[in-house]
Amino acid sequence: KTINVDIKDVLSTVSRDDINRLEGEGAEALDKVLNGTGAGSDFLGWVNLPTETTEALLDDIIACADQLRATCDTVVAIGIGGSYLGAKAVIEALSDSFAAYRPGVQGEPKVLFAGQNIGEDYLYELQDYLKDKRFGIIVISKSGTTTEPAIAFRLLKEQLESQLGIEEARKRIVAITDAQRGALRSLATEEGYKTFVIADNVGGRFSVLTPVGLLPIAVVGYDIRALIDGAAEMEKATSEANDQNPSFLYACTRNALYNAGKKTEILVNYNPKLHYFGEWWKQLYGESEGKDHKGIFPAAVDNSTDLHSMGQWIQDGERTIFETVVSVEEQKYDKLIPSDEANLDGLNYIAGKHIDEVNKMAELGTRIAHVDGGVPNILITLPALREKYLGQLIYFFEKACGISGYILGVNPFNQPGVEDYKRNMFALLAKPGYEKETEAIQARLK
Ligand code: PA5
């Protein structure tokens, strides 16, 4: 089984010819991704990553995860952006919805996240929670210099050392960073932490299938080999410039829609476990394509929840949007709607049906309504929320993102725009080296 992409519900907005016209550019874009002939080609390490991931690396990650599982009831994964969202997305997609409240249920040890915000209360409450926990830390930063995770790590390192002593704490800290550069690398070397390397040629948002994503996922106990196998299947299925290549088809279709004035893409799920997958996808596409004053704006909704909030806008607001629906075919458990003799709630007409059948009718009914209302729909079906299919889906979106960015005419692998806020923040905080910027920004604020 594999994921499937269906574009028939965009054809009332763009024709097959509109899409086919982009196939030449799409083929060139795919060639750039596969052969490294486009902008940002030193960041294409993710392209062959699934088929090139060695058994030795997977063994090392699993052994490290087992070690943390044996010594910790809680592991805090510290990181932001690409050093956070992939692991969070996969863990949420695979976990029991109430794992956080049920010790001993799937998801033990708990993996918590930090360094993905600068919330004082968040960090206070996290440290308070960890007071009586046997916790460990996975600190992840490719550059090794990002402020948010550095703050969280400073706090949690100090806490772990005071709870366990410096020597024991060192055994419970794993650092994932650049092979040589950055403050985190120097710190890890100095302290003698176990480390994993993020290769130079893999950008943050393309790093979920490296130790960045794989270690936290393995700590919860999920099958990272199946995740990589699924991605490897997709790597093989996305190497040719034709409609059998789902990434190629998706990339050409979304660019045809963009050219037709559809400037916002909404990733839609009908499964609450996919909320963070939407967050991961937003980063992947937003940071890769939003450049040179161009690019589809990536948004996401969780249905049917958001049908009761954003549903009105999507059905009836400005017609500049399209949707990409991620539909999960099979659920893990069976739950039927019970019959009730009194039928006071009037629900007996669906008694005996699977909850998911109702959900699927909400999904189908919504897709029909949205298409009728002028919102083209791309439909991606996922056989089930399992490691292998998530691996397929991740790689499918990554490959499509590279192709799509090149069709758009941007470098999909840099992110120059995220430096601006950092420069201002450092100036405002009077970071050494930013004296001139501090002076300028203070003058401006007077
Ligand atoms: O995709 C990216 O490159 C970014 O989102 C980074 O992942 C994010 O800024 C975190 O960077 P780092 O891992 O260097 O701390």
From TrEMBL:
<comment type="similarity">
    <text>Belongs to the GPI family.</text>
</comment>
<dbReference type="GO" id="GO:0048029">
    <property type="term" value="F:monosaccharide binding"/>
</dbReference>
<keyword id="KW-0324">Glycolysis</keyword>
<keyword id="KW-0413">Isomerase</keyword>
<keyword id="KW-0312">Gluconeogenesis</keyword>
<dbReference type="GO" id="GO:0006094">
    <property type="term" value="P:gluconeogenesis"/>
</dbReference>
<comment type="function">
    <text>Catalyzes the reversible isomerization of glucose-6-phosphate to fructose-6-phosphate.</text>
</comment>
<comment type="pathway">
    <text>Carbohydrate degradation; glycolysis; D-glyceraldehyde 3-phosphate and glycerone phosphate from D-glucose: step 2/4.</text>
</comment>
<comment type="pathway">
    <text>Carbohydrate biosynthesis; gluconeogenesis.</text>
</comment>
<dbReference type="GO" id="GO:0097367">
    <property type="term" value="F:carbohydrate derivative binding"/>
</dbReference>
<dbReference type="GO" id="GO:0006096">
    <property type="term" value="P:glycolytic process"/>
</dbReference>
<protein>
    <recommendedName>
        <fullName>Glucose-6-phosphate isomerase</fullName>
        <ecNumber>5.3.1.9</ecNumber>
    </recommendedName>
</protein>
<dbReference type="InterPro" id="IPR035482">
    <property type="entry name" value="SIS_PGI_2"/>
</dbReference>
<dbReference type="GO" id="GO:0004347">
    <property type="term" value="F:glucose-6-phosphate isomerase activity"/>
</dbReference>
<dbReference type="InterPro" id="IPR001672">
    <property type="entry name" value="G6P_Isomerase"/>
</dbReference>
<dbReference type="InterPro" id="IPR046348">
    <property type="entry name" value="SIS_dom_sf"/>
</dbReference>
<dbReference type="InterPro" id="IPR018189">
    <property type="entry name" value="Phosphoglucose_isomerase_CS"/>
</dbReference>
<feature type="active site" description="Proton donor">
    <location>
        <position position="287"/>
    </location>
</feature>
<dbReference type="GO" id="GO:0051156">
    <property type="term" value="P:glucose 6-phosphate metabolic process"/>
</dbReference>
<keyword id="KW-0963">Cytoplasm</keyword>
<dbReference type="InterPro" id="IPR035476">
    <property type="entry name" value="SIS_PGI_1"/>
</dbReference>
<feature type="active site">
    <location>
        <position position="422"/>
    </location>
</feature>
<dbReference type="Pfam" id="PF00342">
    <property type="entry name" value="PGI"/>
</dbReference>
<dbReference type="GO" id="GO:0005829">
    <property type="term" value="C:cytosol"/>
</dbReference>
